[in-house]
Each structure stands twice: as structure tokens, then as C-alpha cells.
Design goal:
This protein has no helices and 11 strands. The protein has strands at about 5, 10, 20-25, 35-40, 45-50, 55-60, 65-70, 75-80, 90-100, 105, 110-115. Strand 4 and strand 5 form a beta hairpin.
């Protein structure tokens, strides 16, 4: 069973930055697609960004140019650098590991609140 542990969330003012981290406990990290999702209260969980084992990244339109996903295969960790945050980015952010379609592992989530 893979365990994913997120960290780095918190309260930040509009225009500020945060970096989320997600540590993957298993031995398969280097061969799985990693992703970040987010869920605001009363809304569905949305894809934020994904990154392949080789480092190819994709982003949701609403974060392009502001967020950067990266991974360190030597540390079994994926990161999400979030810049120029706005109140609409407030949500619980979840780390995802996908070994294959339908084979997902999730972290417990970390709260990001953007407010003045």
C-alpha cells in the first residue's frame, strides 16, 4: 500500500506563494505519474497538474503560468510551487499517484487558504 503525505499548506495573502510537497512511501515512485488535485468546499475535485516519470508536465488552464509541478525521483517527492495565489485557489490540495488508469493512491490533503 502506497502512502502519500502532503505538507506545505497554510494561510497566505493574495499574490503570495506556497510550495507543497508530497512524499511517496513506495518503491514505484519513479515509474508512476504524479499529480496534484484540489477541492474547494461544495465543489468537485479538480485536476491541477500532473507530471510523468520523465518530467513532462501538464497543467489546468486556471493555473498555467502560476503553478509549477516538479519531482525528485531520488527523494520520492513531488512538489507544487504556487505563485501569485488568489482567493479562488483556496482549497484542499491532494497528491495523487497513478500507476495505471484506475489505479490511484491519494494523500490525506493539505489546506491552502488565500486571504487577506
Amino acid at each position: 500500500q502506497v502512502r502519500l503525505v502532503e505538507s506545505g499548506g497554510g494561510l497566505v495573502q493574495p499574490g503570495g506563494s506556497l510550495r507543497l510537497s508530497c512524499a511517496h512511501s513506495g518503491s514505484s515512485f519513479s515509474i508512476v505519474v504524479m499529480g496534484w488535485y484540489r477541492q474547494a468546499p461544495g465543489k468537485q475535485r479538480d485536476l491541477v497538474a500532473t507530471i510523468t516519470p520523465g518530467g513532462s508536465a501538464k497543467y489546468a488552464d486556471f493555473v498555467k503560468g502560476r503553478f509549477t509541478i516538479s519531482r525528485d525521483n531520488t527523494k520520492n517527492t513531488v512538489y507544487l510551487q504556487m505563485n501569485n495565489l488568489n482567493p479562488e485557489d483556496t482549497a484542499v490540495y491532494y497528491c495523487n499517484a497513478r500507476a495505471a488508469p484506475g489505479f490511484d493512491d491519494w494523500g490525506q490533503g493539505t489546506q491552502v487558504t488565500v486571504s487577506s
